Recover the amino acids of this structure.
């Protein structure tokens, strides 16, 4: 190698170095300008910093007050804005000082709790990063966000949908007979928000389109117009839904649905849109194998992604087709538990044996209580699926009271079909212990026979 070659190589490698460092510098510069956070980063931040400390379904009004105390300590504005029918305080949280106004409310249905916890985590994040992250600073300068977490504290306390008058607040937008509904309407009128977020939970057995995939999150850009005509605020919200779907796809692809959009003049989503605040409805369902904290995290990611898109320009550029192409929610395709090809033994009034699939569903309850389960369907259910399925081809399914009925409790005794038992014998279950017992969604005995 001569001297010229060596120096050429040196120049070449220097150039490469220059190109590499300058492009790295450019990337660094761009990231400092946009400073945007990816959905994965939101997930990581949530894992490290969330203030929600228990499963949302176990959260009471008192827990909400504790969370709000924490937010106040961080510097977030919290004020009591009204009382429920049962005289419980209803609070509004405010953050930001911008001209664009965003209004969010959760848990108008008392047994739909996920978003209440997610809002707490969202405000904690925003306040903590107000001076640390450029995009959050910009958010603070561009937006004013107001949120009512737990609009229905009485319902939440009883873990029931309705308020203490047993009125569904979400069917009271026109009649306005509930203090909670009146409050929601007044808060909207005082604030005149540009964006509304109506935050709910849907059944865990809600599915996506023609699949049996759980709809873990469903979205709806609420029109609020009976004739269904489009308008800029609605199109904008469809684009925001698109941004949220793209973000959530990184965690729950195939588990996002589009909520039924039939117009309902008694519902707040529709009326608030009609009154001038186009609403995005977020419905959180379930995901088998994941707990409620995971659902908070998804809400957290979705909310912050939506807010970020309002200030970094991604909202304007987003594709509303992503939302339009989302399959609609469906129901009746999925059960909680399925016992396939069981030989049902009815030994009560009329003795009979027959082969059937038996589907069992679970009612919605707090995480801390064992939810009641009931027989939902009997027969050929081969076209349907369940979250947990058991092959019972070689087993008798014996209802303890001698008659399998729809709606009856789901306690079953299981016997291997090789055993010869006289089902008409008094106290046969004591004389011949069953191989397995399933009750309220739990294997009391014999789990190892079916759960690998
Ligand atoms: Zn609801």
């Amino acid at each position: 190698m001569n001297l010229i070659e060596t120096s050429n190589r040196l120049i070449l490698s220097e150039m490469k170095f220059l190109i590499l460092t300058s492009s790295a510098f450019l990337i660094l510069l761009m990231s400092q300008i946009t400073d945007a956070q990816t959905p994965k980063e939101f997930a990581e931040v949530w894992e490290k910093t969330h203030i929600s400390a228990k499963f949302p379904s176990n959260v009471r009004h008192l827990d909400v007050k504790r969370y709000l105390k924490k937010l106040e300590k961080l510097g977030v504005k919290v004020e009591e804005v009204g009382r429920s029918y049962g005289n419980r305080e209803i609070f509004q949280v405010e953050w930001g000082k911008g001209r664009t106004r965003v209004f969010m409310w959760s848990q108008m249905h008392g047994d739909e709790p996920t978003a209440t916890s997610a809002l707490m985590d969202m405000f904690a994040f925003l306040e903590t990063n107000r001076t640390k992250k450029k995009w959050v600073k910009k958010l603070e300068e561009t937006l004013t966000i107001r949120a009512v977490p737990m609009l229905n504290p009485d319902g939440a306390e009883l873990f029931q949908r309705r308020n203490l008058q047993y009125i569904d607040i979400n069917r009271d937008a026109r009649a306005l007979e509930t203090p909670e509904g009146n409050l929601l309407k007044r808060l909207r009128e005082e604030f005149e928000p540009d964006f509304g977020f109506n935050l709910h939970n849907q059944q865990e057995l809600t599915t996506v389109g023609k699949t049996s995939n759980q709809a873990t999150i469903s979205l709806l850009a609420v029109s609020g117009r009976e004739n269904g005509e489009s308008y800029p605020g609605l199109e904008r919200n469809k684009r925001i839904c698109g941004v949220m779907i793209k973000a959530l796809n990184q965690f729950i692809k195939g588990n996002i649905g589009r909520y039924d959009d039939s117009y309902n003049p008694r519902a707040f989503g529709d009326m608030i849109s009609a009154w001038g605040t186009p609403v995005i409805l977020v419905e959180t369902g379930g995901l088998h194998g994941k707990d409620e904290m995971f659902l908070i995290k998804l809400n957290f990611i979705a909310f912050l992604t939506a807010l970020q898109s309002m200030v970094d320009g991604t909202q304007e550029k987003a594709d509303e087709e992503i939302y339009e192409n989302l399959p609609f929610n469906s129901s009746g395709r999925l059960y909680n538990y399925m016992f396939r090809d069981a030989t049902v033994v009815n030994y009560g009034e009329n003795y009979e044996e027959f082969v059937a699939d038996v589907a069992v569903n679970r009612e919605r309850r707090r995480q801390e209580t064992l939810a009641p389960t009931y027989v939902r369907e009997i027969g050929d259910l081969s076209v349907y699926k369940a979250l947990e399925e058991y092959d019972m081809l070689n087993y008798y399914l014996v209802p303890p009271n001698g008659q399998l009925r729809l709606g009856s409790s789901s306690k079953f005794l299981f016997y291997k079909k090789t055993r010869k038992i006289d089902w008409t014998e008094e106290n046969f279950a004591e004389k011949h212990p069953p191989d397995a017992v399933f009750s309220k969604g739990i294997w009391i005995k014999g789990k190892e026979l079916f759960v690998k």
Summary: The chain has a mean pLDDT of 93. Residues 3-34 form the longest helix (32 residues).
